[in-house]
Amino acid sequence: xxxxxxxxxAVALGLALVLSPFSAAAAEEMxxxxxxxxxxxxxxxxxxxxxxxxxxxRFENVDLIAAEVPKDRLTDLMVLTGGQASxxxxxxxxxxxxxxxxxxxxxxxxxxxxxxxxxxxGEELRQALAVxxxxxxxxxxxxxxxxxxxxxxTGQGIIVAVIDSGTANxxxxxxxxxxxxxxxxxxxxxxxxxxxxxxSRLNGPHGTWVGGVIASHVAFxxxxxxxxxxxxxxxxxxxxxxxxxxPSPPAPAVACFVPLVGVAPxxxxxxxxxxxxxxxxxPEEVIIAAIDRAITLRxxxxxxxPSVPVAGDGSENNPFRFDSLKxxxxxxxxxxxxxxxxxxxxxxxxxxxxxxxxTPVVSAGNDGxxxxxxxxxxxxxxxxxxxxxxxxxxxxxLRDNQxxxxxxxxxxxxxxxxxxxxxxxxxxxxxxxxxxxTANGFATLTQGTCQTSAACIAGTGGAPISFVSGTSFSAPxxxxxxxxxxxxxxxxxxxxxxxxxxxxxxxxxxGDLSKRIDQGRGFLDVVKSQDLLLSDRVGSHxxxxxxxxxxxxxxxxxxxxxxxxRDGVFxxxxxxxxxxxxxxxxxxxxxxxxxxxxxxxxxxPELPPALQNQFFGDDLFVQAVDAPTSFAESKIFDFVNGDxxxxxxxxxxxxxxxAVQGDWTNAGRISADLSVERIRNPQGPATERGRVGQGExxxxxxxxxxxxxxxxxxxxxxxxxxxxxxxxxxxxLIDLATLTLNFDGATFRSPERAVIQNPPGGIWIAxxxxxxxxxxxxxxxxxxxxxxxxxx
Length: 792
Description:
Layout (H helix, E strand, L loop, with lengths): L4 H15 L4 H5 L1 E7 L5 H9 L3 E5 L5 E7 L3 H7 L4 E3 L2 E2 L19 E2 L3 E4 L2 H10 L13 H6 L8 E6 L9 H4 L5 E6 L17 H10 L1 E7 L3 H9 L19 E7 L6 E6 L8 E2 H19 L6 E3 L9 E2 L4 E6 L12 H12 L2 E5 L20 E7 L1 H12 L3 H5 L6 E2 L17 E4 L3 E4 L6 H5 L6 E4 L2 H18 L5 H10 L12 H4 L6 H9 L16 H6 L12 E9 L4 E8 L3 E13 L14 E6 L8 E7 L3 E6 L4 E9 L7 E11 L7 E5 L4 E8 L5 E8 L10 E8 L4 E6 L6 E6 L4 E11 L5 E9 L2 E2 L2
Helix pairs in contact: 1-4, 8-15, 9-12, 10-11, 15-16, 15-18, 16-18
């Protein structure tokens, strides 16, 4: 039975009678959703409330509300809103994961303890910059920021909004507080969080780390006997300020000063807290609410509203709050998955930042080196999306501090800059390259908050100074660069700032043969970008896409072809991968694909053992991800130095990606044979098939034999991960004997699959729901089996 819009209300009422006896726990389980519709939203809000839901956000700059509704009333919501509801995702801070932990158990994050600190601003900053050939930490010399600094441009008067976990404004975080505090105020979008203030030193450290990359303006003093100073003398000696003699007992150790000078050290930060202090992700609506607010603040400024505090006293726990602010740059070191890259609610509102004069800078994500893993809102048309690079000095200094002096050079023997292994790669499902550009995002030294320091919490000590890695820290490097360009050319549009940074990037700096899906247009070059901007050689056009409905066709237009199987097998020789270089392979999977077997053999390093990495030898680093695009669902994640084989069972439908890297720790090139076997079995006729539109639901009745030990119900549809955009079709199972509702098939997976052990025999209902259908309808096939036997 297929139910359309005309008859769906009556069937919904009938189903409501069936669902009403379900357990209170099932009925009270809530789902976060977006509902599209015109302002003033009265009808949408009434529909949500009538179903026992609550409206959680009303957006000003996009026609959208956010709500929570009982999970068993989602189909009713579709009926009442004409199918204009969609499931929200969670947005996360990209994970900070050190792959060394896989090889060296017990590897821990490193913090260093300073003995002294001094402010660097005004004349002190100018003097420090004059004698500092390079600042290894934020690569101000490598990206060219030091040239602009020497000319007097340090981002004075430019405001960068940091949408993150909060950015501390506390004397216990001197990197942003000494002299003129960097943080001018902020707002929280998490009412009821355990830490109320967006500028508290008790928030998670991520947003403060990010703020430090943008606007730190201090020098920290460390003992000349410390591992940090000893390692810097080996790998980045010109990053140390002033005399720093080697320790010579019995002479006392002296403090050697290391600058933490952000890319735009005189810029100001507006802290917009969207992540809870306890950690973890946040609903997508919270991110959109912060973006919405940034647009409103800038629009109010554009319309002449005075930029004066309307609340707060400027202290750590009561920051200034504004209703008008000239925000020039927004940094978002965060991301999540999307079914509709470039055109989702989060992507759409991110691009709208440009319209009011704000350049959005977004991290690509840390999902690894497999293709098609850039997250939203990095997939937005207007976003300046950053991949992460890894330089030898950064890694060597980190490893020396983790394991001892000398370990760093042995751990990272190759001398060239690479795309960091964790940096998410393009292309996007709609046929666009991503990321746009790359900057260092590995082992950045920056100051955080007090969460791990009792003395700092008590106010008697400083916050830890840590080595942190991720595209979370390449993004604020570019946000600082955008602030410098805004200072250099106040009349440029926000899109011109973005485009200048893209066009000015250096495609030749990385030495691992990174391609455009790895590094974008290249490594950030602020000097070249400024020259392009000031000479009026960049426009304000933001490229969009005109994609096919086939993801395969979209990526083929960019030069990427899925592998060709002969008699179910693909074989190739991967030749001479440089350290950090990645080879990508795309595997087509349908609902008839039971498994892929991925095998490696004849792994051949070019260098003899004595010249390879002294600790691990030279090997391959392998990642395989399932068919979802814009995030990674890893199926293989391993180091390979000999024959190895992996099974990917029940793959999703679309394009799986196998990525093979010449391990970033290798000393030389490496080759190997790759074999992929595709295992397919005849599926036989479907139990049911049909079509479902946006907001429609299609119920089917089937009978489960008594004494069944395993019931498997699988729902596949044509508009899967191989289709752009991807539809979200749900499978709900109702056991009428026990009045139990099963939501295992109501996820983002394609196909949806519910496996129930020892199910009660009798009549069951399968409910197919077109939760998000982008076209007129989605074509589906449902297959139900009891102990492997197809049910009629």
